[in-house]
Amino acid sequence: MRAQCLPLYSYAFLCYLLAKGLVLKAQRKIVQSIILLGLLLLSGQLFAATLSGVIYGGSALLENAVVTLLDAGQQPVAGKAPVATNASGAYQFASLADGNYYLTVTPPAGSGYGSVSPTLVALPGSDVEQDFVLVSGAVTLSGVISDHTGAALAGARVKAYQQVDTSWVQVGQEITVGADGSYEWSVSAGNYYLYATFNYSQVDLEGEPYSAEKRSADFSVTTNSGHDIQFDFVVLSGLTVDSNGVPVPGVELRTTKYWEGPESGAQGMKAWRYIAHNYAKTISASDGSYLMVLYPTDTCIGSGYYSSDADCLYDITIVPPSGSNFVQSYQKDLAITSDTNNNNIVLESGQTLSGVVRDHTGAPLAGVHVKAYQQVDTSWVQVG
Fold it and tell me: What DSSP letter does each residue of 271-284 carry, written as one string?
């Protein structure tokens, strides 16, 4: 039970009386104390709601179920880590602002109970109790995330989504896989797809991109099921050199690609892949060598999803070292179906584009930012 207090306008009126000198001197300290206490109580009303409840496995209290609190956008709430239920099946999240939240429940591994998908809970200005009953008869959805060599990709993350009517909703928690690459959820029978992702800071992979994603096609789960996810990359490597074949270090290579298919499930959910080498992630070494992983283009072409094979090919932007006499250039329409080890990139020398920014009097105008854009086919892209 939280302390009750007057409406906010009551304290505003008391502040008005104080400001206008309409409160007797002997009463001022009393009024000031009332205002201070009221504001503290209001603060408690706004930011001290408690969301709690009990998790049951069938008719029994369920210990060690993991309850996760999500905000209105179904993202983890800052400072509110998932909690495990105690021996009485109880959980609690205290000191919450009023508003809408979502709760998910993940049963203990091997318990045989199903997970609870994100469930909306509103905090309307008072404490709320929300209990859940987990249904038995759950099955296991498990697998391993691996890289293109078949090695476990520790640090990658994976989510499972279940079809509910015409929507797809996340079940259980997102899992960051460990050294063995494995993941597992207890789920109810139904239709699912998996979504896996990583960025360069989370995995140890030679030639890794800034980020990569992969979604499976939908599939049906009726019994314990294994569904692995492999980031089926191929390796592109070579040297960055000048027109004389001399290695040029410090050259940045950028490319981004997304495509759907070719895999498609019975519910029409297509697989898709995404990869991004950007943000100065892929740069040639001191000997001019570079190495980057990419998805093979024949996978995209084989999907039949795109009207032109060219939609599946890579365009690589080649950014020379700052201060060099080389210009930004492009390797366009690159097809790659297997590891390619001698894709040497020759940098182009260019002319100097320079000038001075001046104000209306003709004086140089310091602090102005200038960008240059070059026409490439029918597009204009920033250079430098």
Answer: EEEEEEE-TT--B-
C-beta separation of 297 from 316 below 8 A? no
Q: How far are the Cα atoms of 151, 170, 201, 273, 279 from residue 156, in angstroms, in the given order?
A: 12, 17, 10, 15, 20
Radius of gyration of the chain (CA): 29
Task: Name residue 356's amino acid.
Answer: V
The 10s digit of each residue's pLDDT in 15-51 is 555 555 555 555 656 655 665 555 555 444 445 799 9
Measured distance CA(327)–CA(311) in Å, rounded: 26
- CB–CB of 202/155 below 8 Å? yes
Q: CB neighbours of 28 closer than 8 A, spacing ≥ 6?
A: 18
Residue-level length of the chain:
384
Three-state secondary-structure class, residue 13? helix
% of the chain at pLDDT higher than 70: 88
* Predicted TM-score (pTM) above 0.70: no
Backbone φ and ψ of 47, nearest 5°: -130, 20
- Which tens digit of pLDDT belongs to each residue from 243-287? 999 999 999 999 999 988 888 899 999 999 999 999 989 999 999
DSSP assignments along 98-150, one per residue? SEEEEEEEEPPTTS-BPPEEEEEEEE-SS-EE--EEE-B--EEEEEEEE-TTS
Flag residues of the chain having pLDDT under 70.
1-47, 384
pLDDT at residue 173 in the model: 78
Torsion of CA 353, 359, 365, 371, to 10 degrees: -40
- How far is it, in rounded angstroms, from Cα 213 to Cα 157? 10
Report helix, strand and coil shares of the chain as percent, to nearest 5. 10, 45, 45
CA dist list (Å): 287 to 64, 93, 240, 248, 249? 54, 55, 9, 7, 6
